[in-house]
Amino acid sequence: MDTKSQKILEDSSVANNPSRSGRPSREEEKASLARYDSAALELFQADLAQAHIRGQWQNEVLRKSGNAGVWSDGSLAPKSGGQPFLWQWRLIKGFLEQSCLAVPESYTSRRSLMFNNPELARGTTNTINMGVQMIRPGEMAWAHRHSISALRFVISGDPNIFTVVDGVRCAMETGDLILTPQWRWHDHYNQTANPAIWLDVLDGPVMGAFNQVVFESYGERQQPILNYESDVAEDGRVLRFRFQDVVAALAAMPQEAVSAADGFVYEYRDPVTAQAPLPTLGCRMLRLAAGFSGENCRRSTSEIYHVVRGHGRAIIGDRVLEWGPGDCFALPNWSWRSIQNASSEEDALLFAAHDRPLIDMLGLYREARG
Ligand SMILES: [Fe+2]
Fold first, then answer.
1. Structural domain that includes position 23
2. How many Å apart are CA 338 and CA 262, to the nearest integer?
3. Could you tell me the distance, in angstroms and rounded to a whole number, from the CA of residue 193 to the centre of ligand 1?
């Protein structure tokens, strides 16, 4: 059955009979295009849409509307996902306390508050979820597992606050990083007199994009603790990175190790495999020396930041995010950014998680300096 647009196209080819070689001349092509006007094109595209087909030229029109630039090698640049955004600790802390009153432990597996990027349907960035969680004295978060990989950066910890990962008891002292890789049972405990607080970072948007979000309850509130002695899983995987080791490594870095964009950088890596902590997420701790002003740069990766100590600003695109202790912010992929320590006397420490393992695996990593 002929569509309306096919009829117009046929009329147009009859009127522009090809030259003797069988191939239309440039003038004939132009004349044909002039006849095939925008109204006809719209009709044609409507016919395509009805058949669940889309012409690639329709995407090119989007590109021309200004959501992409050009790489230095001439290829097209990616679009940033979401916007730069900061969640203030003052606000976060208040909501956490409120959540402890509003949401009893028995009501939920996790009393976690997730940060949604204002420009995204889900996620703190296009690939990462960040949130915070509080567990009151004596409470626990019951055992479960999921296909989403997660890590915890401890904001307010203690040796008697801990996570059990596949039977391994990992103490959560302030500043420690605890991994709960995909499909490992995990439950959290607070056996102290003070609230436990940590940052949750997950690869939820990636798992969601793959339609691979799977969740299972353990069936009982807690799993047995099999290993109190080490922070290493049965398969040799390190599950806990201690803050004191990270701080010591940063302090020992020679001046020439400083990065113009990031200051001194500790990249968390598994000590045996040298791999990033999770297949989808890497982690870094940045030490910005007093007065440090980072070079403007942009990268393919999206990142989340949590301020461990210090005050400063992150200039991301046309936004200036002023940060202080406890604040969290989102850095969308391929956004120009400069990070600065506002103090001329004290160092600042920023914990960051990024999607570089995925970006590298896909061969997409690039960076530019500005
Ligand atoms: Fe979980």
1. 4-64
2. 9
3. 24
